[in-house]
Write a structure and sequence with these properties.
five-stranded parallel sheet; Rossmann fold; 5 strands; 127 residues; 5 helices; alpha/beta
Length: 127
Amino acid sequence: MKILLAEDDRRLGKLIMKMLKKEQFAADWVEDGQSAYDQALTEDYDVMILDWMLPKMDGIQVSQALRKEGYNGAILMLTARGALEDRVNGLDAGADDYMMKPFAFEELFARIRSLLRRNYFPVETNT
């Protein structure tokens, strides 16, 4: 099971990567939307954690472009944009789930496990 994190905030990206590895998730990290798009199409990821406000391509553009290409991996939009319209736009752009910052890691991990269950991947929990 492999996760792609697309987050341009270096401090938050480092923290998320540390926590993912602590939970024994294999993960790669990119800091812009174009890299997220390219990486998702060249590597096999089960879940992408995708920030909305990324340089080069924003998360909405990444999600839409990936879905247009037939990308079937789960996309979890993790963003500070929390208005109802934003959540609807994120989901309509192809995200499978939407989570607002700030967030609790316990909830992030639960949502990842939920996305994996939907895609019929076996999930082991540390709880």
